[in-house]
Input
Amino acid sequence: MRCILTVLLENDVSPFEVTQSGLVPALLTYLTKPHPSPSTPEHSQQEVEVAREVRVRAFLHVFLGCPKNDDEDEEAEAKVNSIELFRSA
Output
């Protein structure tokens, strides 16, 4: 994903070129389509959902600068809360 971001930011790529390259449909498929189910049925749906969540989080982290996981969300929230507490004191 970082390579895609680098190409889009550092090269003179027009919106027409992006749409004609097939990048948008491929990225949409990558972010939404589940992996094939594993051979063990009791874990298949859970593993598919985790894989999709990991892909979406990676996309959000690279393109929008969002935290990679929930722990980082909690750390960021704790920092904001501590700053607000310090300012109100």
